[in-house]
Write a structure and sequence with these properties.
This protein has 165 residues and is of the alpha/beta class. It contains five helices and eight strands, in the order E-E-H-H-H-E-E-E-H-E-H-E-E. Strand 7 (142-146) and strand 8 (152-162) form a beta hairpin. The longest helix has 25 residues, at 51-75. The N and C termini lie close together (7 Å).
């Protein structure tokens, strides 16, 4: 779980350990594996029409980007505790909001970062328009924010609970 501010990313110990393990894998065993794939593809001949070579080089580029992202994230990471159970919206909390106060039109999401959570939960950044609008609000509070198309939207905070992923 993460809480992100301008210069610091707060991670739980398990989140930090998970990202560090991923970085160690990518900078160790993965680099050896991709180098072997590239070399094997290179030995197949003409590189201009060698799909295996191009696929391996593309994979290498994507993972090297991930290595840079993880390195930067871990360099500015501070390890802390998961957020306390509270009725106040903050990074690291799972939030249920009702659009325009309509309890039949709700959305549940994590206010935080995708770095640790993965794709199994909808995530909104604390820096997003919705994230900024609801950060610090309590259950029952209303918040308004601007949509990308310039229109205004409003939500009511229905439930807040800590993410314990």
């Amino acid at each position: 779980m993460t809480q992100t501010s301008e210069n610091v990313t707060w991670l739980t110990q398990s989140g930090y350990d998970q990202l560090k393990a991923e970085l160690e894998h990518l900078t160790g065993p993965w680099r050896i594996e991709i180098a072997q794939k590239i070399e094997a593809a290179r030995e197949e001949g003409d590189l201009k029409e060698n799909a295996g070579y191009h696929a391996a080089k593309e994979e290498q580029g994507k993972q090297e980007l991930r290595i840079r992202q993880l390195t930067q994230l871990l360099e500015r990471a501070k390890v802390g505790e998961a957020p306390a159970d509270s009725d106040v919206v903050a990074p690291g909390m799972i939030v249920t909001v009702a659009f325009d106060g309509d309890l039949d039109d709700t959305m549940v999401f994590l206010l935080g970062s995708r770095e640790v959570v993965g794709d199994d939960l909808e995530i909104y950044s604390p820096q997003s328009p919705l994230g900024r609008a609801i950060d610090g609000k309590k259950v029952g509070d209303d918040a308004g924010y601007e949509l990308p198309n310039g229109k205004q939207a409003s939500v009511r905070i229905v439930e807040v609970k800590p993410y314990n992923g």
